[in-house]
Structure formats: C-alpha cells, structure tokens
Amino acid sequence: MLITCPYCGPRDVIEFTYQGDGNRERPDPASQNFEAWNAYVYDRLNPAGDHNEIWQHSGGCRAHLRVVRNTLTHEISSVAFVRGDHSSAARRKAEDKP
Amino acid sequence: MSPRRTDTGGRIDRLKTIRFTFDGVAYTGHGGDTLASALLANGVTLFGRSFKYHRPRGLLSAGVEEPNALVTVLKGEVREPNIPATMVEIHDGLSAVSQNRFPSLTWDIHAVNQLGGKILSAGFYYKTFMGPVIGPLKGTRFWMFCEHFIRRAAGLGSAGSAKDPARYERMNAFCDVLVVGSGPAGLMAAKAAADQGARVVLADLEPRFGGSGNWSGETIDGAPAAEWVRRTVAQLEARDNVRLLPRTTVWGYYDNNTLAALERVSDHKAQPAKGEPRHRYWAIRAGSVVLATGAFERPLVFPGNDRPGVMLAHAAQRYANEFGVLPGQRVVVFTNNDSAYRSALALKQAGAAIVAIIDVRPQPSAEMSALAGEAEAELLSGHAVVATEGGKALSGLKVQRFDMVAGALSGDARSVHADCLLMSGGWSPTIHLASQAGAKAEWNAARQAFLPPKPTQNWIGAGAFTGSFSTVEAIAEGRAAGLAAAGGTGTPAALPTVEATPGDQDPAPVFEIKGSGKSFVDFQHDVTAEDVRLAHREGFVSVEHLKRYTTLGMATDQGKSSNIPGLAIMAEALGKPIPEVGTTRFRPPFAPVSIGSLAAERFGDLKPERLTPMHDWHLANGATMYSAGLWYRPMIYGLSGETVEQAYVREAKATRESAGMVDVSTLGKIAVQGPDAAAFLDRVYTNMFSTLAVGKARYGLMLREDGFAFDDGTTWRLGEQDFLMTTTTANAGKVMQHLEYFLDVIWPELKVHVTSVTDEWAGAAIGGPKARQILAACVTGTAVDNATLPFMGIVHGEISGVPVMICRLSFSGEMAFEVYSGAGHGTHVWEALVEAGKPFGLVTYGLEALGTMRIEKGHVTGAEIDGRTTARDLHLDWMLSKKKPFIGSAMMDREGLVASERLELVGLIALDNRPLNGGAHIVEEVDEANPHGSIGHITACCYSPALGKHIALALVKGGKARHGTRAHVSDPLRNRFGPVEIVSNHFYDPEGTRMHG
Ligand SMILES: [Zn+2]
C-alpha cells in the first residue's frame, strides 16, 4: 500500500503508523458524559468501503494525515494534513513552491 | 539400473564433475545438474516415502511443483527440510537426506500402513481421536497419547534446532515492467519492454532462463530453441535497463502492484562469498507486470499412478533434453492430449525405446498417429493404464480398452513391460499470481483448465499462462505484452519464426481411470480419488470443506499438480460441471519462503542496535551487556569468579553504603517547548506541571485515553516555556507519538513543539550516602549543597570542563543525582565522576542492581505499568489531580477500574528463603500438585541485600487489604511452590529519609 504524504510524496505503508479512526470526536475535556467518552474510546464504524483514518508519517515528516481508504480495495482517495494548512509541514511545502 | 546419462545434449557441463551425498551414499553429477537429475542419472529411482502410507515414491516432475521427491539439505548443523530435489542445484560437498522413512529409505517398517489403507482414509484422525469414543480411549487425552506416534509415522522432514548462521537480506526494487517467467513469452516480453527503454526486471525461479525453450527441442529463428534462448538472454544481459534475477521465485502479488520475490542467492554454492546472503527478499514495485508463468502439466489419476518410474511426460522430456538423462529405457506414454506425443518423440530421439503410446481418445489425429510412427511406438488409442507393477521401480503395467465417454473399461487387461511411464492429463496455466492479485479464475471447457481472468491490477498475461500452449503464440503474446506494459505502440520487425511439431492444445476431458487399487490425486498428502468420493458421501459438498477434510492440496506443494484432478473428481461425484464446484483462491506464497528472508535485517549482523555514549567504557570495564529492545545496557560489572547474583548484590550494597553510578542515557528524553508547554503538560500528565517552578523537576504519571496507566517519569522545567520530559526507556517512542498525536490532531491550537532529544544527552545517575560529596569534589560553577540543590532541584555547572545539568532525584531510594551532559562528552564526564568517586568507594552498577534497588523501594516500571493496571492499582492515586481534566481522567473512574477485586501492587517476602520467579502465581491454598485459584502474579523479584531476603513485587487481588497475610507462590513450570508474606511494596526506607537526606 502506498500513501501519498502531501509533504513527502508517495511512500510505502511501512513508513506510516495507523493512529485510529478519523471519525472519532473527542468530547470536551471537562465533560462527564460517560456515553460520549465511551463512544469516543471504543465505538468504531468498521465500514466495508471508504474509511476516514488518521495515519502518522512516523518514518518521515511525522505529520498526521487524514486518509480516506477503501477497506475493500486499499484504494486511497484522499490524503490531507489533519491540521489543515496550518501545519508546519504544509507551510514548508507551500514555501517550496515558486 | 535403467535410467542413464546420454552422451550429448542438455545444459549440463560434462567436463565438470561434482561430488555429493544422498542418504550418506557418495554420488557424482555434473555442473548444471539438479539433485533430481544427478540422482536419476545415477540410477536412483526411489526418492522418498509418502506422507501417510509410506509408499515408495520417485520423481513426478522436474520443477517447483514436485510433490514426491522432498529432501532435507544439511549444511553444518543446519537442516533445511522439505526441499524438492528438483529445485536443489548440486555443488561439491552437498549433503542431502531423504525423509519420512524409518529406519531407511529402502526398508521402511511403516510401509505396513499400506495394508491398513481402509483405516487411514479421509478424516481418519478426526474420526478416531476427536470423536466421542467410549471408555479409556476417549477424546483429547487419547489423541495426545497417540499423537506422538502418528506424527512420527505421518509427516515430512523434521526441522533442525541449530541456530541458522546464514545471512538474509531485504531489497526494494522499482521498475517499469516486471516480467515473471522467462520462457519464450517472458523473454520476448522483457526484450520488447527493454527496447522501449523501460526499466525491466526479469525473474525466473529456475537457475537458467528460457523455460520450455531449454527442453522443447523446437527451432526458433533457425536455431535450436535453447540456442535462441541463450542469444536472447545475452542481449538482455548487455542492457543496463534490464535486471535479471535467476533463482528468484515471485511468490506474492500485493496492492499497488507490489510483488514479493525470494532470490536463492547462495544455496547452490559450496561456500557463499563473504557477506553474501543465503536468500534475498525482494519487494518489487512494478509499473506493470507481465505474467508469463507458464503452465503445469497434470497427472492422470489411475491405480498405481504413484509408483517410482511414473512421471509427467514433459518432465521426462526435460530430463532428456535439458539434463541429458533418460529416466528409462523402455518407455510407455499415457495421455489424454497431443503434447505427450512430442515428449515421446523427444525421448525416442534421446535414445529410449517408446514401447507404446496409450491414448484415452478413440481416434487421435493423423498427425499424432504419424508422430507415434516416427517414435516407433505402438499406438493404443481408446485405451487406458489400469495398473502398474514393480516395487521401488516400475517393471510393467496393465492396459485395458477404455471408453472415454462412458468412462468404462472393457476387454482383457494386457501386460506391457516398461521401466518408465510418462503421463499427461493436460495442462493448467500457472495463474497463482493473478489469483492472488484478486481476480477469480474462469473455467475454459475446451482447455479443461482455469484461465486467468481480466486483470484486477496492472498486469498483462502472455503464453501458456493465458492458455496459449504453443511457442508461436507465446512469442507473439510475449512481445505484445512487453510492448503494452512499457506503454509502447510501435509495430516492430517480424516475429521470430518457430518450427514446432503441431498438435491440438485441447485435451480430452478425462481425469481418472477408475480401477481397483489406490489412485492418487494429491501425491504429497497421499489423498486418493476414493478419499475424495468418501468425503462427498459423508456430506462435504463445498470445495473448501473438501480440502480441509481430505487435506487435498494443503501440502507444501499447495496442490500444484492435484487441484484440478481433485476438483474434477469432486464435480463428477456431485454431478455438477467443474466451474460450479468452484476453485479455491490462491494465496501467497506461491512456493515456500524461508522465514529468515522475511525477518532479514531484523536479525543477525544487519540488525540495528543502539549504544549509549559510554558503551565502550562499559565493555572495557567488565560489564556484561544486556539487550533491552534495541539498546544494550550493562547488566552487571562482574568481578572474576562472581555469579550474577553476587555481582548485583555487591553493587547494590556498595551503593547503599557509599555510592553507585549507573548509565541512564537510554531514558527517553523529549524537549517540550513553547508558550503553551505548561498547559499542555497539565493535560498530558495526571498531576500539575504549570505550578512547577523553573529549575525544579517533578515526577509525573500519564494515562491512556481509556484511563489505564501509560508511562511515568520526571519532567524538568528548564525555563518558563522549556521543559525536558523523561520517559521510560521502552516507551520513549510511544510517548513521543502520543504527544505528537494530541498536538497535531486534538489540540492544534496549542503552541507547543516537541522534539526527541534522547540521543542528545548522556545521563549518569549517581546515588548513595557519599554521592553529594563526590559531586562536590568534581563539579565546578555551582554548589551542590542542600540549599542550592534541594530534592528535585536542578543546577547547571561543569565537570572537567564540560557543561552539565544536574537534577537531584532518586530511583534507588538513596540521595541521588542525575548528571546530564552532551552525548559526545558522556564518557569524559563519566570518567571524571568515576575518578572523583574513587576516594569514596564509588561503584558502577548495572540493570540488575538498578532493578534490585527499585524493587526494595517499591517503584513501578513497565512490568507493573503493563497496560492493564490503573493509577490506583499501583497506589499512585495521590498523583490524580482533581483540579483539572487530563488524558484519561474521564474514563479512569469507570466501574471496572475502581472495583475492589482488582489486582493491586504489593510486596512479597519468601518465607522459605528461596528465590522467587517473575510470572509465578500467588495462590491461597496449599495444594502443590493441583495449584488453583490464582490471586495474582509476581512482576519483579530479586534477592534484597538491604533486607537479607528474597523479595518480589506482585499484583495481587485485594492488595493492601492483604498486607500482613500469608499466601503461596506457585510456579509449576519451574517446580517452585512455597509460602510468602504479603507486605507493602515499600520494603526499604518507606519514609524516604535517605533520599531527602
Ligand atoms: Zn511525510
């Protein structure tokens, strides 16, 4: 499997660490809503098809990426920095461009 | 001794004599021989005993599909079992032995199993041993009793126990076009793609490129095919955009056109070159792939089809044309198709007599009749072989009239004298890689074979792989595939011309001749046609269940020759056409892969290792090193004659009495910097860090999101926005990732930067009653007295001219200091401390003494923070701040995590004065023979010099409530049972007066 890191380019999956389901929403830190916390920590969709995932390019720029991967075909339809354009990696990338 | 070497021909080098042994007997062969061809030339027909019945077996094939002739290759102490003799290239000194025979290959007492054939039928083991048998022979216990004997009787070669000294490598390769298989189709594809300028990799599992070109005997471009092959390979060799990989099995087809291959680099050499690996694992990323993997010839299923001397027709042709070996002198051919006629003619031309060609078809074509005439063979059309005769070699066979439409035999059986029977049941394209890539095979009724389907990945098929079994088609398809794979469009010069014997490529739909006697479908697993029918009668209708019940196709050859005949017999039993019975999906690997090649650089001399800056000093000063993950750390600094226990006891004692020093450079160190660093640490740790004064350190605990303990360590505030976090050695990487995740994904608004600085700092922890005096003697630029450097205080100074940072904190329980310097100065500072410590009796100590002192103090490490324990379990609840939320705070109070019956940290003292063992269980009842009712387990143990007792830390149900009570350790694996007292985990100086001074 290849993941195209927006900063480093296409790299083998061996360079990346799966950092979990990208659909999770962390409750407000002070929240005592146990149901919400439980859902955040344990509940997963496990779809057969496109899945929104977080991957860290741990063997590269170490940025976290939001990856949409088809769980049936491993086809990757989109990769973006989780931080959006504010990440330092993205800024560096932008500065590289003429 | 009927097989023999021909005088000329083949790829072998007759001038080169090679000496090797098989089952201890010395033989000679020639350069280019395989073990199979060399033994065959020596008249050896018996290669092994079969899996279940111990029937004598010879060579079925000449290639990777060989199910019978499996051998164990011995190299020094290392034994490599289950290698097909057809895949072993001989070299001087090669030593191979046969398998599954007792006591010897020619005289095997287990061959008596043949008499019990009815008993050992499909599902025998399940029925006999797993079922509800009454009385003493019941169920699992009886199976366990019998298993030992059965495993010895039914099986393959045994693995060795010696450590494999060979080196293995992994290589990544990138190419525009990967061509798998180097027969005429593969060669044409590689050449066409290379001519387009593409980067080409050509891989073949054989040592010699050319595939069928090496033995077909056809003429290509006016030259013998083998000569055309040599010319074409030479052209490819001369190009710098082509990489040739002989002896390389492409065994896996994965996503994104990534393929896995195994190159056998030095198995064929008496001695590998210096640094040369035994095997190389290739991960190949190919723009496109040309699959030119050819086809496997199928055996016919008839009684006695496994007798030594019965082999595939093309295999005999290969032995004759490629190796110059005649497998027999009086040859009979048994076929359902035209291709075997060519094999017959080839053997005739090589010097054998073709006694008869037996064709199941009533009316072979005029061309085939002519070929039979040319071979001077009697043509028996509409006939079939119904029995074979002979013991360890074929002596004859019986033939009967056969009606292939009705499948019926008639008339009297006629005996034919022969020493070799060639069979051909048609051909199955080698579609394994295409199947792995995700496509479902399609049945072709004319070819009686599964053909590759439409590609699901970027591959193109060519030649016999696509069901085009003629060389003319292979050459045309090969070039077209190579061109297309390279993205070329040109129509280049004329194709090479081929002169070949014509023939129909479609076989008759005959797979089995039903007669009395065992007819083998899967030779390696000893599955007969009757076993398949029995499975059907017992209700196994799915092909997947059939496989598992009969073990058809589940041996090391993965059914390369047995899948289609097995399926055909099943289809007949079910009364369904073959495609409706279905085929199984092929999975990697195509052929067995050495585990060493998969592990590659993770073992042996290519494995990375992490050394602390003081590593060489430790070695020079008597340290015994211990590997902890990738790190190497001193275990003890033993004096001569000391045991490990004596050494660590001496080191720990000296530390508590005067002073000791340990290398702590391996601790994870992370610089946490930025305006929001303090706020970030408040969220990460369970306790407060924003309140920590600059120049002070604090012990911190982290939880995971699910509320369990994650890691602990001290964090030092070096400046308002500048913290140095330390983590446990093992968790350094995980903690770094944890911090990065929260900063990147959860709290991108926090202005914090984290940097791993583990390797930037050398660390020495010096502790003991004299530690402060030693520092005072060598530190300049700062005082180290209690006022300047209080508990958890940090100062900056110099030691021997090198800037150092010193924090007063203690893991040993003594007054102790961690001295950090730049990594490059680590040894210099360490040596200065050793020098300054001499008058004070300073010792250096290793991990064992470190562990001993931490157990005495009851501090936790990874053994207790094991992912299942909470802060409360470890009595660290005092660190859980109630003033703020932190990672894990919402989940840590869940019902299950605050239950009273949880395992809690306690101390144990052995009451019988014997050592305790890590992992031992704690039980309440004195029942050594039948220990039960575990209430916990030991996480760490040592002999405590401070207490003079064997002690341990343990996680025990109820924990604190059991302090002062007695229980027993139970460790049946090590025969240890004995009484212990449960106490507080703080064994030594619980008030901490020693470290506070
Ligand atoms: Zn990257």
How would you characterize this protein structure?
The complex is a heterodimer of chains A (98) and B (997). Chain A contains two helices and six strands. Chain A has 98 residues and is of the alpha+beta class. Chain A has a single domain, classed as Folate-binding superfamily (Folate-binding fold, 2-Layer Sandwich), CATH 3.30.2270.10. Chain A has a four-stranded antiparallel β-sheet, with no helix packed on it. Chain A has a two-stranded antiparallel sheet with strand order 1-2. Chain A is globular. Chain B is α+β, with helices and mostly antiparallel strands. Among the domains of chain B are: 161 residues, Ubiquitin-like (UB roll), CATH 3.10.20.440; 199 residues, FAD/NAD(P)-binding domain (3-Layer(bba) Sandwich), CATH 3.50.50; 139 residues, Gyrase A, domain 2, CATH 3.30.1360.120; 92 residues, Aminomethyltransferase beta-barrel domains (Alpha-Beta Plaits), CATH 3.30.70; 98 residues, Elongation Factor Tu (Ef-tu), domain 3 (Beta Barrel). Chain B contains 23 helices and 54 strands. In chain B, strands 9, 10, 13, 14, 15, 16 and 30 form a seven-stranded mixed β-sheet that branches. Chain B has a seven-stranded mixed β-sheet with strand order 44-45-46-47-43-37-48, with helices on both faces. In chain B, strands 49-52-51-50-53-54 form a six-stranded antiparallel barrel. In chain B, strand 20, helix 7 and strand 21 form a beta-alpha-beta unit. The mean pLDDT of chain B is 93. Chains A and B meet through helix 1 of A and helix 19 of B. The complex binds zinc ion. The site of zinc ion has 7 residues of chain A, from loops. Zinc ion binds next to loops of chain A.
